[in-house]
Write a structure and sequence with these properties.
- The complex is a heterodimer of chains A (217) and B (563).
- Chain A is an alpha+beta fold and 217 residues long.
- Chain A folds into 2 domains: 102 residues, Beta-grasp domain (Ubiquitin-like (UB roll), Roll); 98 residues, Fumarate Reductase Iron-sulfur Protein, Chain B, domain 2, CATH 1.10.1060.10.
- Chain A has a 5-stranded mixed sheet. In chain A, strands 6-7 form a two-stranded antiparallel ribbon.
- In chain A, helix 4 runs antiparallel to helix 6.
- The longest helix of chain A is centred in the C-terminal third of the chain and has 14 residues.
- The radius of gyration of chain A is 20 Å and the shape is elongated.
- Chain B folds into 3 domains: 281 residues, FAD/NAD(P)-binding domain; 104 residues, Succinate dehydrogenase/fumarate reductase flavoprotein, catalytic domain (Flavocytochrome C3, Chain A, domain 1, Alpha-Beta Complex), CATH 3.90.700.10; 111 residues, Fumarate reductase/succinate dehydrogenase flavoprotein-like, C-terminal domain (Methane Monooxygenase Hydroxylase, Chain G, domain 1).
- Helix content of chain B is 36%, strand content 18%.
- Chain B is built from 15 helices and 19 strands.
- In chain B, strands 1, 2, 6, 7, 8, 9 and 16 form a 7-stranded mixed sheet that branches. Chain B has a 5-stranded mixed sheet with strand order 17-15-10-18-19.
- In chain B, helix 1 links the parallel strand 1 and strand 2.
- In chain B, helix 2 packs across helix 3.
- The longest helix of chain B is centred in the last third of the chain and has 25 residues.
- Classes of the chains: A alpha+beta (217), B alpha/beta (563).
- At the A-B interface, helix 4 of A face helix 3, helix 4, helix 9 and helix 14 of B.
Chain lengths: 217, 563
């Protein structure tokens, strides 16, 4: 199908403000927005956007697609075309733009530090883990650090969404010595965390489910 | 000028493991083309082989690996790989890897191809991903300096010794010099040499080509693995775990055709055997719609698929529109892994003093002519760890190598000459482009240097690759000083890939036998008399110079390989 991509362009070295550049590309509806972008790139090789795995596991190609943060490689063209066959692509909101669709990821990766983002292994850990407990780690451990949650979810407080996911994943880990102190590191009241976890499943490209506060009132 | 005692290039599993180990005793930095968590190690699904089971043994793991590699692997290196497997899995466990567990709480293991036991430690079908993120956590804990989205451009070699690197700061569009005592290459493979590949856009063999240009020996590059089960059309990986969990392969008649090719192992024969079987089925008219075969998981049931293969299900649904719990998945083989790479010893040391390599970029060689599923993830952590130890030891023992201004000037002049070459920016004559050259090169490799090879097609491929190189040399590269200049990246990558394609095609032409993943229709038998040897290649004045190297055989004399 023939699709019009409107891609937000901005080069700080020469542009005073961003503008939308139009590309008309031929792609299958089962192809992805990333495929469409790669066609556009061949038309204008100065276009900058990140990509790598093209199978929704590396997290590179998170952009705003028709105003919604998502992975370009995970979004099918057919589902993204709005009225008139147009797809509008912009950089992730709440991130500083460096060029075109490329945003500054340094603050994003630095934000993880707030939750001490590693397992502090207990001295007495014997290498075993209950399989049911292990299953609870799986959801948050599929986080690909793409940044979509930071762009799409507002959480009051200084700890950002992706860091909360990491913090919650570590809090569920029986190997970790910090235990309950993990929740204090996140500096967010439990009721807000519960709301966050619910919204996360809706907005995360991996649909991450976290077993937090289940069975609590 | 930046200085680090040890510079690890590549932020995937091998690179991060090397950095962690080196950081215990030396000043280390990681330079990576993508942010470390974006590395292609994260796409690995199946698992890490280690003989942990009570019935399994290191001995059995060694033998399966030797046989799987069609006796081309070096048995001393394989012994290291398999012996250190169990302890490295437990080290990862203590670091916090969220493995799937057995009812007793142990690390769960599944069967993958060519293995005599369920040997692959896994986390659902996100095994590479969870270990990559766990190692990244540890790198943050150790506060290892990371240069994300920096590209290795050149190795600075002074009197035969690596003394630093020329690096390109992609976000700022600037060239930088980093002085080092030791460089550990962990840049992964070169899957993007092929049109049909499971590999990420970033996997363009940069490290292999740069090391080769600097004088390092590459070995066994003609051995390219084609993964049997990739989604038809997009070639997105569907893990061997799908067959490990009990999946079947069926042709157009619904027949489990592997019964004709590997009656004992069936779908869990090694990948080279399965990929050839699939193409043979298609070629002889038993392909579905004449083009692909089916991976049938429907009998596994929805619960097992949800528990063990959630990513496989998601990928098939999203990219093929097929729910594997209800319908069979259309699949075809595609390039997946490079058995060859920069020749190293069991400590990652190459023939260039100061240059180490580990992971897919390296050839130790543990995979021989065909890698078994679950052995590459193991290789990254076992040999990444060893390279890290060795790098730290060298950093403590060795003085800072001298780096003279003439060496620096020579490297900078090469870079400048590269950027000043050719005609119109980003274009060659008659509107030629790096895009066009890449497309023709990768199609050529898939069609003529793929699963089935013949002398005449390989000769033709070598000729066409030379023409592509001529065209490439007439392109003008797109300006080097602009930030996030992906066109420049593309231009550089095509140059690396052209070097490697030439080596792969010429190596395949030279090797007049069939062994593991290298299959010659005109020489369909393994020839131990003449070809039980590694292929070594060095850069000569007029292109690659090939020679044969000995294979280390300790315990297992070559036998006929049957499955």
């Amino acid at each position: 199908m023939r699709v019009t991509l409107k891609v937000s362009r901005f080069d700080p070295a020469k542009d005073r403000q961003p503008y939308l550049q139009e590309f008309v590309v031929e792609v299958g509806e089962k192809q992805t927005v990333l495929d469409a972008l790669l066609h556009a790139w061949e038309v204008d090789p100065t276009l900058s956007f990140r990509r790598s795995c093209r199978s929704a596991i590396c997290g590179s190609c998170a952009v705003s697609i028709n105003g919604r943060p998502a992975l370009a490689c995970q979004t099918l063209v057919g589902s993204a075309v709005a009225e008139g066959g147009v797809i509008t692509l912009e950089p992730l909101p709440h991130f500083r733009r460096l060029k075109d669709l490329v945003v500054d990821l340094e603050p994003f990766f630095a934000s993880l530090q707030a939750v001490l983002p590693w397992v502090v292994t207990r001295e007495d850990h014997d290498g075993l883990m209950d399989p049911e407990v292990a299953r609870k780690l799986e959801g948050p451990a599929t986080c690909i650090l793409c940044g979509v949650c930071d762009a799409a979810i507002e959480v009051a407080g200084e700890v950002k969404p992706a860091a909360l996911v990491k913090g919650l994943r570590l809090a569920l880990d029986p190997r970790d010595a910090l235990g309950a102190a993990r929740l204090q590191l996140m500096k967010v009241p439990p009721e807000i965390l519960r709301l966050f976890v619910r919204e996360l499943t809706q907005k995360c490209p991996k649909g991450i489910k976290i077993a937090f506060g289940e069975g609590e009132s | 000028m930046l200085m680090h005692e040890v510079l690890v290039v590549g932020g995937g599993l091998a690179g991060l493991m090397a950095a962690l180990k080196a950081a215990e005793k030396a000043d280390v930095a990681v330079l990576s083309k993508v942010y470390p968590t974006r590395s292609h190690s994260g796409a690995a699904q199946g698992g890490f082989n280690a003989a942990l089971g009570e019935d399994d043994s290191i001995e059995a793991h060694i033998f399966d690996t030797v046989k799987g590699g069609d006796y081309l692997g070096d048995q001393d290196a394989i012994e290291v790989l398999c012996s250190e497997g169990p302890e490295v899995i437990m080290e990862l466990e203590r670091m916090g890897v969220p493995w799937t567990r057995t009812p007793e709480g142990k690390v769960a293991q599944r069967s993958l191809g060519g293995a005599g036991f369920p040997r692959a430690c896994f986390a659902a079908d996100f095994s590479g991903h969870v270990v990559l993120h766990t190692l990244y956590e540890q790198v943050l804990r150790r506060r290892v300096k990371i240069y994300p989205e920096w590209y290795l451009i050149d190795l600075l070699v002074e009197g035969g010794q690596v003394a630093g690197v020329l690096a390109y700061d992609f976000p700022r569009g600037r060239l930088e010099v980093i002085r080092t005592k030791v460089v550990v290459l962990a840049t992964g493979g070169c899957g993007r040499a092929f049109a049909k590949t499971t590999n990420a856009h970033a996997n363009t063999g940069d490290g292999m080509a740069i090391a080769y240009r600097a004088g390092a020996i590459l070995s066994d590059m003609e051995f390219v693995q084609f993964h049997p089960t990739t989604l038809y059309g997009t070639n997105i990986l569907i893990s061997e775990a799908a067959r490990g969990e009990g999946g079947y392969l069926r042709n157009a008649y619904g027949e489990r055709f592997m019964a004709h090719y590997a009656p004992q192992k069936m779908e869990l024969a090694p990948r080279d055997v399965v990929s050839r079987a699939i193409f043979k089925e298609i070629k002889e008219g038993r392909g579905v719609a004449g083009r692909y075969v089916h991976l049938d998981l429907t009998h596994l049931g929805e619960a097992k698929i949800a528990e063990r293969l959630p990513q496989v299900r998601d990928l098939a649904m999203r990219y093929a529109g097929v729910d594997p719990a209800r319908e069979p998945v259309p699949i075809e083989p595609a390039q997946h892994y490079s058995m060859g790479g920069v020749r190293t010893d069991v400590w990652g040391m190459t023939n260039l003093p100061g240059l180490l390599a580990a992971g897919e970029v390296a050839n130790v060689s543990v995979h021989g002519a065909n890698r078994l599923g679950g052995n590459s993830l193991l290789e990254t952590v076992v040999f990444g760890r060893r390279a890290g130890w060795k790098a730290a030891e060298l950093a403590r023992q060795e003085p800072w190598p001298s780096l003279t201004s003439s060496t620096l000037k020579r490297a900078l002049a090469t870079w400048d000459a590269l950027l000043d070459a050719g005609g119109e920016e980003g274009q060659g004559r008659n509107g030629d482009s790096a895009f066009a050259i890449r497309r023709e090169m990768t199609t050529l490799m898939t069609e003529q240097v793929g699963v089935f090879r013949t002398g005449s097609e390989l000769e033709d491929a070598v000729r066409k690759l030379a023409q592509l190189r001529d065209r490439y040399q007439r392109l003008k590269p797109p300006g080097g000083s602009r930030p996030f200049n992906y066109a420049l990246m593309d231009y550089l990558e095509v140059g690396y890939l052209l070097d490697l394609c030439e080596i792969i095609a010429k190596g395949a032409l030279r090797r007049t036998e069939s062994r593991g993943a290298h299959y010659r229709l005109d020489y369909p038998r393994r020839d131990d008399q003449n070809w039980l040897c590694h292929t070594f290649v060095r850069r000569g004045e007029k292109g690659p110079e090939f020679s044969n190297g000995p294979v280390k055989i300790t315990r297992y004399a070559p036998q006929e390989r049957g499955y």
